[in-house]
Structure formats: structure tokens, C-alpha cells
Amino acid sequence: MKNLRGIIVLIVLLLFTVCAGALYADSEMHWSYSGEYGPQNWHKLPGSQANGKKQSPINIPSDAPINENGIKFFYMDSLLNIENNGHTIKVSYERGSYILVEGKKYNLLQFHFHAPSEHTFSGEHFPMETHFVHQSDDGEYAVIGLFLKKGEYNSAYASIWEHFPEEGEKKETDTVINAKTLLPERKSYYRYDGSFTTPPCTEGVKWFVLKDSVELSDDQISQFEKFYKSNNRPIQPFNRRGFYLGGEEQKKDSFLPVFVIIGIVIIAIGIMFFFMQGKKSEKR
Ligand SMILES: [Zn+2]
């Protein structure tokens, strides 16, 4: 009899653990761009690095150093495989396309869109931003950010826009795309170390934000905005990071504040001497 009671207690405990585990796993998945599960609470999610010091997106100041022609693109054709996952519209790319940058190869995994842009330039948002997500064979991530602005109708983007799925849906199509056609002609970029802009906001992501933007028509932008109008994480502090130029991190001169402090001390000592001299002459 005692044994039976023990077994029942054990079963109840087990069930409780399983249920709690399921709830925990569910909370891990659930996040949004506003309200209780919004960006200000992303750091509470399991495994989140959202409170880290090297987060994305950031503002790019107009005087940030520009890298010219540093990325070699090897983007092949791919069948359009598109998904509306409740956070963005994402295109998964067939294996075999990659970039070479800073002496390393990164395979193109997918690209997706944000509206408005996540990064800002000189404090200004663009209507949209495309993220091309790459991963090296040793697991490192490199993301190319591309600003999309209002302008001419863009036929390269149209072949994707035609296939937007409803929320929670996936489509495998016969349409052939090439991610190369989505890029601007010149590929100069701003380079910094950041994170994923969605939970768990993992750091160690190399960011390449292209200087030149690409145009979409008013209609094309509002077509995307019908699905996602504010799927952008707020701008994160830059902290003690530097932009990279030719693979070298350009940290802001941290000696400047020291010089300012030394300067103030010298001036203060000078003023003190001045008054002391004055008092001495009064005594005479
Ligand atoms: Zn993104």
C-alpha cells in the first residue's frame, strides 16, 4: 500500500515536470515586436544575449569608415522557397552560394526583410532592410544588411513579392531567383561586430551594412507592410566597439578624455597659483 502511494506521488511529480518543461519550451519560442513579449523583455528569454554589450542593430554615423570592394559574391541560382514565419518573410536559399570576405568563406543560408530598416544611417531609418544571412563551415555568422528606399519599381524583388505566403505558411515554388539581382551595383560597406536582431540575439555576428541602397516602388513597400509594418528591433548602444576598415577595428581614441582631464587639472593648478600669488602680494 505504501509502495503504491509512493508510485502515485512519483507519477504526479513526473507529469508536473513534463508539463513545466513543455511550458518552458513554449515560452522560449514566444516573442514579438511589442507588448509583454517585446524587445524590452527579450533578455528574459532562455539563452538570450539581448543584454550583451555587442548588440544589433545600431546607428551608423555618417563618418563611419567605408570599405570598398571587400566582398566577393558567389551567388548561384536557387528555386524560390519562401516562408512567412510570423516575424518576417524569409527566403531559404539552396546550398552552394557563398561570399568571400576578410579571407573567409560564408555560405548563404537565407535572406529576409524588415520594415522599417533595423539599422539607421545618421539617425534615419529607411523604409525597409534586407538581411542576407551567411554561415562559415566553422559556424561563424556574417550578415549583409541592405537598405531599401522608395523609388522605382524593382522587378528582381517583384519575383519574390508575387509569392508572399500568408502567416504561418510556406511555399516551394518553381520560380528561379538569384540573390545577386537583389543587391546594388556598388557593394561598399560598413563593418562592425554585432548580434542577431531577433531572440536569442546571439553575439559574434559579423555585420556588413551596404552603403548603397536599392529602390522599391511605393506599392512594393506597402505590399510588404501589409504583413509587417514594424518588425524592427530598436537601435542598440554601440558601447566600446569600433567599425572595421580593411579588417582592422578602428576604435575611437580613448586617450582623448584623459587629455581633457589632464588639461582641466593643469588649468585648475594654474588658477590656484594665480590666486596664491595675489594673496602673497596683498600681504606685502
Ligand atoms: Zn533580420
UniProtKB/TrEMBL annotation:
Q: Does the keyword Transmembrane helix apply?
A: yes
Enumerate the spans annotated as Alpha-carbonic anhydrase domain: 29-247
The question of whether rRNA-binding is a record keyword is answered with no
PROSITE patterns for this protein = ALPHA_CA_2 (PS51144)
- The EC number(s) attached to this protein equal 4.2.1.1
Q: Which SMART domains does the entry link to?
A: Carb_anhydrase (SM01057)
Q: Where are the transmembrane segments?
A: 255-276
- What enzyme class is recorded for this protein? lyase
The catalysed reaction is: hydrogencarbonate + H(+) = CO2 + H2O
Keywords of the record: Lyase, Membrane, Metal-binding, Transmembrane, Transmembrane helix, Zinc
Matches recorded under PANTHER family: CARBONIC ANHYDRASE
> What protein family does this chain belong to?
Belongs to the alpha-carbonic anhydrase family.
**Stated name of the protein:** carbonic anhydrase
The organism's lineage?
Bacteria, Pseudomonadati, Spirochaetota, Spirochaetia, Winmispirales
